[in-house]
Amino acid sequence: xxxxxDLLEILVCPKCREKVVLTEDGSGLKCDTCRLVYEIRDxxxxxxxxxxxxxD
Length: 56
Hints:
Oligomer: single chain
Largest sheet: 5 strands, antiparallel
CATH topology: N-terminal domain of TfIIb
Helix content: 10-25%
Radius of gyration: 10 Å
Number of strands: 5
CATH class: Mainly Beta
Number of helices: 1
Distance between the termini: 24 Å
């Protein structure tokens, strides 16, 4: 697993501070409130607003 369940419990969106969830394919963390996806690279979530992409 790319991101541990313990880490997922504490991670929040840096823009709105809402909880993020793993995407269906496991390649990122999504915030449904902001409609942003934060990429996971080398098992490390990149939680930078400028690096996030918008949900389709």
